[in-house]
Amino acid sequence: MSVYHNDWRDKPAGYYADPEVKAQHDRRVRDERKFSRLVEIELGKMGYERDEIPTREDCVRAEEIARQKF
């Protein structure tokens, strides 16, 4: 399955026809990416590299810190 096919299915109904639906979807995706990046930064501060798998407790702690900053 192509990456483009998955991207196409990710779009909500009316994405290309209704500017409001497009704006809401784009805002949600942007916020999800920003939050994920904040979590990655916090895990990096805890000493985790990108190829290391953090413990569940560290993930929860990083998400809590990221929520406070978000």
Report on the architecture of this protein:
This protein is mainly alpha-helical. The protein has one domain (19-69). Helices cover 70% and strands 0% of the residues. The protein has three helices and no strands. Helix 2 packs across helix 3 (56-69). It is elongated. The termini are far apart.
Helix/strand layout:
Blueprint: H1 3-10, H2 19-45, H3 56-69
The fraction of residues in strands falls at under 5%
Q: What's the alpha carbon Rg, rounded to whole Å?
A: 16 Å
| Topology order in helix (H) and strand (E) letters | HHH
Give the averaged pLDDT, no decimals. 84
Observed structural traits:
70 residues, mainly alpha, 70% helix, elongated
Write a short abstract of this structure:
This protein is mainly α and 70 residues long.
